[in-house]
Amino acid sequence: MLKKSLLMMCLLLLAACGKPSSEVSEIHFSIAQAPLNLDPRYATDAASERVNRLIYQPLVDFDVASKPAPVLASWHAVNDMEYRFTLIKNRALFHNQTQLTAQDVKATYDSLMRLKDSPHVAEFANISTINAPDENTVEFHLKQADKHFPAKLIIGILPKGLIEKEHDFSHNPVGNGPLKFVGWQNKLTLERISDKQRIALQEVKDPTVRVLKLMRGEADLIQGDLPPELVKYLQSKPEISLKTSIGANFSYLGLNMQDPVLRNLKVRQAIAYAIDRQAIIEKVMVRNTRVAGAILPPEHWAGNANLTPYDYNPGHARQLLQEAGVKLPFKLVYKTSTDAQRVRFATILQAQMRPAGIDLEIRSLDWGTFFEDVKQGNFQLFGLTWVGIKTPEIYAKAFGSHSFPPNGFNRGRYADAELDKLLTKEDWPAATQRIHAQLPYIPLWYEGQFAAMKKNISNYSPKPDGNWDDLTTIARLATKSSATISNHAY
Q1: Which of 27, 114, 183, 469 is the most buried (most CB within 10 A)?
Q2: pLDDT tens by residue, 250-307
Q3: Which pTM does this prediction carry?
Q4: E strand segments, 271-341
Q5: Alpha-carbon distance 478 to 3, whole Å?
Q6: How many helices and strands, by DSSP H and E, does the chain display?
Q7: Cβ count within 10 A of residue 276
Q8: How far is Cα of residue 186 from the mean position of the Cα atoms in its chain?
Q9: Do the bridges between strand 68-70 and strand 73-79 make them parallel or antiparallel, or are there none, so unpaired?
């Protein structure tokens, strides 16, 4: 209680000393993590994916039912091995003012097929050839039949001329999306094509500082990655508008299946039974957070609501470890980022696992180092969240034995012949049951979504997958005079 009272006092004092932002023309969005790569062929972190959705346009995206829907092109299957895409007539120019044609689509996917270090390359290994018979038509010829192929074409399209010049899209992106890249110094600045409204995204790792910036007028918008006490604090402020929604992003503990101890199923089961998910949700998560059983939530068309949860049972967990022949206390190293909320989760996990005989050592690393360790398999346990997942093929990418990085996202190097057969047959209910029973990861929760903004900000709401798509519509309401904040403290 003392720590919470001090936190609230600091917020009140510092907010009172603030000054309104002088850059009224820009809308300022304080984010917990800056994007790592603005080349859609390489991006895998959540911030990069969310920004790239705004800068680029893909052939296909997903509708509210998570079914593939046209963006730049409609399509039809010529036969089991060929798909023909027809570009829409009124498509936007690239931001360098060149016309997007079928040749750009071909060049984008040809480059993906050639790249050796792209995490998406395995997704397109089934493509045999790509033809562009005219500027509006693209034909994909496959090596094997794939009825879900259109749903894979969600990569933003790049200009052919810049691909050929080996342009650095990662730091100087050029797409044809609703927002274009302006600059990236201390902040990432984007400009909306429709009305030249500029939006500045600035990384502010500390959640308390993000709240302070919002209260002091240095930020207009923040979203997610706040502890519940700060969310409640913002809800009490009349100058702040706070919107919430259920979440669909899946948080989990990743396990290194190459580790000689973690290979033992009883050890993995023990870890699952050593975590009190419901207590964490109730005490330190925001509203609308739900216990998770699989990557796709139950309401998804391929979701599985029939998964028996691993309830908190440290006594049973301890027994499983003893049956596995593990000497107690059993030490595990858990890697996470330096984000305050993620470190907080880790600390709670550490305390919850102790009665089960698990000694959890926490190593918090800067985001770049942490994520690189995860991709390289340099971990025992880690905590991450799958963001914006729409298709059940994610199970093959994340757990298929042929999907080890860089050919997929099977970062734990899990291999199971029985699961491979189920994935090949696309028997998603049986596959999720198998994954849930074998525990190549430990499911945690679908985190609720929220966004907090100044009262003069409109046309923005949080989405279940946490995307920032409403930056295409966000607006600042006109006021008679700029709001001022008292300079005296309480």
Answers
A1: 27
A2: 999 999 999 999 999 999 999 999 999 999 998 888 888 999 999 999 888 888 888 9
A3: 0.76
A4: 290-291, 330-337
A5: 39
A6: 14, 21
A7: 19
A8: 22
A9: unpaired
